[in-house]
Predict the 3D structure of the following.
Amino acid sequence: MEYVLSTDNLCKSYRHFKALNGLSMHVPKGAIYGFVGKNGAGKTTLIRLICGLQAPTAGEYTLYGIKSTQGNITKSRRRIGAVVETPSIYLNMTAEENLKEQYIILGLPSFDGIPELLRLVDLENTGKKKAKNFSLGMRQRLGIAIALCGDPDFLVLDEPINGLDPQGIIEIRELILKLNREKQITVLISSHILDELSRLATHYGFIDNGRLIKEISAKELEAASQKCLRLEVSDMRVLTRVMDAMNIEYHIFSDTQADIFAQITATQLVLELAKKGCEVISIHERDESLESYYVSLLGGGANE
Amino acid sequence: MNKLIAAHLMRLKKDKCFWICTLFTIFIAVYRNLDSYSMSKEYNYTCTLESVFFPFVMLMAMLSPVFCSLFLGTEFSDGTIRNKLTVGHDRISIYLSDLIVCSITNILLCIAYIIPCLCLGIPLFGFFTFSLQMILIQMGCSLILAIAYAALYTAVAMLNQNRAVTAVICIMGMFLLFFFGTLLYSRLNEPETYGSYTIMTEAGEVIQEEASPNPFYVGGARRAIYEFLVEALPSGQTAMLSSPESPLYGTDTEKPPRLILYSSMISLLSTGLGIYFFRKKDIK
């Protein structure tokens, strides 16, 4: 498999704190790589390293076949577009002026591509409005437009949907999917909003305490994920006895609610519980494969 | 690096701080000419073009930290420096392009004073009374000093990621430098002795006071150190170059090359150190 980015035992320390601790990951070409981890896990640190904002303490990464230790790594960086944390835009400039500025930085010969870029991120009607008067979603889209100047092959987005309203989240999601499908841009997207990430990613990397715990494709994840039924019952003690007797894995998270991880017929379960005097108030099939996988992988609350 | 300079110049054209500084400089140039002219007429003394012309150095030195800290600080506060690094520009190019743009701005601020000053000053006060060669040498020293200021403030701005902190350090630094520079320069200008004078009392008695030594006069090795500091410190040079009684008008032909050497050393040293630490800096 051809990789756009691969890292090998990458380490980054800030004084005594190890933000990255031997991280090794592989981003396949053409993928939307979801980089998952809780706050402070090291997601942004990795992105800062590959964007050249910071240097690794140890280890190395390879970007389009060029190692970070080689002098010409800056050449492969020309194929990257990135939005790191907040969008990097001049607040006292309009959207068009910001794009012109980036075009000049890249040394592009003409500004002909700017109207198309503005249309792509739905900012073509902002006119003379300064970026400081933009909504968060508009700024985020402008940040992505700047990252797209020069037609990059690899787009790095750090928490692109943080703080966005539902409409903004949908717009960013559709934009990322469009870029990946229509322009074949590989995307590395870091997030801890799992539900949203599960709608986009083709590959996942789970990071915790500066280490990559697991790399998995979306198809493999789907196959590996446990489906579950969420039950609300009148008597939890009866439910636990029945589950134990049927040798079914379950997880209790309140006095009346529990998740059951098994392919079981609802009628059989309800009858068993009814025999012992326990009422089933509600049953829902839960489809949070990424979330449950993440919890089981990182140990849920114990890992906090 | 040309791309980065071009991008900076495009931003400079739209930068409010730059235009405010430029308009302020033009206003001061016009005001100073008109004010000096009206004062010379009112109190009947001769005012030369030199006395209104050379303070441009002082004005540039005061505006430079404000402009440099805000203009370069925006790169960090808006996060746009990341756009340059991410697309593969190396840190030395980024640093040098910032330095070049700040130097250009400082020189433009000098020009913003010089042009209106000459346009108004020559009709009002006549041409320079000193030789054109000396005037050009002094202007050359001033322009190299402008680059030294840009180098100092660029180093501060590039090593601080907080725009407000950068602005405070640059402006406070400027005041501190000026305090020492003008203090040293004024001490060097103290006369060695107070001259003899004669006074007449109300009773008509005439008293003759003999010349007495000035306790504030700095002499010996201390004077040599003061002279070195005045010439080496940018603020000392500013005080010297903007003064109508500048020693450069005198016969000391070694002074201008020394000033140019000190300014160049400040530029090289601050840029060298700035680049060294900027290359190692973790950018957020």
Summary: The longest strand of chain B covers residues 197-200. The mean pLDDT of chain B is 87.
